[in-house]
Design brief:
This protein is α+β, with helices and mostly antiparallel strands and 80 residues long. It has one domain. It is built from three helices and three strands; from the N terminus they run βααββα. It has a three-stranded antiparallel sheet. A hairpin with a 2-residue loop joins strand 2 and strand 3. It is globular. It starts with 15 loop residues before the first strand and ends in an 8-residue tail after the last helix. The mean pLDDT is 93.
Length: 80
């Protein structure tokens, strides 16, 4: 992934996101219609966002890892 400008998008790369937060980030910042169900399913398959910390039962991912995960879910239309 080319260098992503977190500051230009108003994202703190050290902020933690829950899976629900990752979905909101995908929708609000990138316009990607990712659903929590999709993120949950990918996580169960070992293909989900990296887990940087755990708080209670919630898996948390830092912004610097959430963004590459979100962008990895998009592929060119020629591969569809």
């Amino acid at each position: 992934m080319k260098e992503f400008d977190f500051e230009a998008h108003g994202i703190d790369p050290n902020k933690y996101f829950t899976r629900k937060g990752i979905v909101a980030l995908a929708r609000d910042v990138f316009g990607i219609p990712l659903t929590k169900g999709t993120v949950d399913k990918l996580a169960c398959e070992g293909k989900g966002p990296p887990v940087d910390a755990i708080c209670g039962k919630r898996h948390l991912t830092r912004g610097r890892n959430a963004v590459p995960f979100i962008l990895s879910q998009v592929r060119p239309a020629t591969e569809a």
